[in-house]
Design a protein that fits this description.
single chain, alpha+beta, Barwin-like endoglucanases, Alpha-Beta Plaits, 2 domains, 6-stranded mixed beta barrel, 4-stranded antiparallel sheet, 4 helices, about 25% helix, about 35% strand, elongated
């Protein structure tokens, strides 16, 4: 196994371990987790989040990699003991070093605007009886034939395409991923495609999250 492939596998294993830790935390009300929080604001204000809800930087919301949309979480800044309760409406942060991405208003309430990040404790207060479904439908359920997919790599080696697919699934389990095979210039190419969206803003938002996690992507438009 060459050094490049070894580094890729090692990175995937670290991501998988982080995802398993998040899954254990997400399994029940009252569970707590300690880690680093970050926040996001004006750049995404007014844009559609992964749940389909329009992101409003002035509301008490947050992004989490795996908690069901609509889950209420109490976040405590361990440096000053300030507390905020937020509702999960988005996916992120896609980093093995951070556990939650707060809205600007939520970050301001616990005094972490200037620092950008803070060590926090998260506690699940309540989870929806059934996950709030995204309001953005897949393209095949709307009248328009136009849709968008996220391309997360093209590989000559099928095993590398599989590794990329699994890495995406550990970051966002509810994002469908497929592998396609094409012949280009006499060579077989395996492409990793994630999602199928009727809304370009949602595709762009998830693309940005994957890019931050170290998975270079591009949004492609399809028809039919």
């Amino acid at each position: 196994m060459n050094l490049c492939r070894l580094n890729y596998v090692f990175s995937f294993i670290l991501t998988l371990l982080f995802a398993l830790n998040l899954s254990a935390f997400a399994s029940g009300t009252g569970k707590t987790q300690t880690g680093t929080a970050s926040w996001y604001g004006s750049k995404y204000h007014g844009k559609r989040s992964s749940s389909g809800e329009i992101y409003n930087k002035n509301k008490m919301t947050a992004a989490h990699p795996s908690l069901p949309f609509g889950t209420e979480v109490k976040v405590t800044n361990l440096s000053n003991n300030q507390v905020v309760v937020v509702r999960i409406t988005d996916r992120g942060p896609f980093s093995k070093y951070r556990i939650i991405d707060l809205s600007e208003a939520a970050a301001r309430k616990i005094g972490m605007i200037r620092s950008g990040t803070a060590k926090v404790t998260m506690e699940i207060l309540s989870k929806p009886e059934s996950e709030v479904p995204p309001t953005v439908a897949l393209a095949d359920s709307v009248a328009s034939d136009v849709y968008f997919v996220i391309q997360a790599g093209s590989f000559s080696d099928f095993k590398n395409a599989e590794l990329q697919s699994e890495k995406i699934k550990t970051l966002q389990a509810d994002l469908p991923v497929i592998l396609t095979k094409e012949t280009v210039g006499g060579k077989t190419i395996h492409r990793v495609l994630a999602g199928r969206f009727s809304d370009r803003q949602v595709a762009d938002r998830i693309k940005q999250n994957l890019d931050k996690a170290g998975i270079p992507t591009l949004v492609r438009q399809g028809n039919g």
